[in-house]
Amino acid sequence: MKQRYILFISILAVMFFVNPALSVAAANQVEFTLGESTYLVDGQTLQMDAVPFIDSGRTFVPVRYLASALGVPESGINWDEDKKMVSLSRGDLKISLVIGVKAFLINDRLLYMDVAPVLSKDRTYLPARYVAEALGGKVSWDELTQKVLIDLSGEVQLPDMSKVTIETSRGSIVLELYPELMPVTVANFEKLVNAGFYNGLTFHRVEDWVIQGGCPNGNGTGGPGWHIPLEVKAGLKNLRGAVAMARSSDPNSAGSQFYILKQDAAWLDGKYAVFGKVLSGMEVVDQIVAGEKIISVK
Asked: Among residues 235, 260, 74, which one has the least CA distance to residue 166?
């Protein structure tokens, strides 16, 4: 019995000291230094086979080392070669980032970055600040030592979500808006919502793939009396549930009319301003008929 106990303790010791993913699971303090292949997790020095670098004022760290240091288990790190997307899962949080795209998802919430993940020498590098903050870390930069310091002792706090609700006789449609990604378009939409512009209007256009509303004339010819410039962002696709501004053949002619997609419409990508998505109520969208009244938007 004593020999079995000693063997069990020995196995645990090997797991703890040899497997870095296990030893850093409960980390509170993490340090990465530019150009160095070692990093610190709660004072313990660990080794990398690649080094952090800085670009456009942001520090990039190899994904597996950054994720492990932030408590993401090996099984929670996944790479989709076709989409060039890396996903990190820790507990009930999931973060998805795509190479070259300045936006990322946190539990299906779309947030903006001022830089994009990169591939370099067959390594995926992620901007340390955005990933760490998404996992509840507080990030600081030490200019003297060229270190990124991450404090993970706090709780995860997701940023406030910008939402509006469209009330119809068939039920509610809740939209999430993207003010950081589409500031001009969202500001215009929220201005109209706050003024009660949409209350009492209709969805004048309904086809098998789309519904469109927001025309004060009820036939697709009207608007609020002004136009806004076309605003597009890479990564915002015309997928089922996407919310975007309708317009004429003039790219800068959007005003108040918007559409919600019932089916993917890739041919519209890059041509129309996608500024949100349906959070709940797609079953209502699917039931809307031409002339359906918009009771309120708030």
From this structure: 260
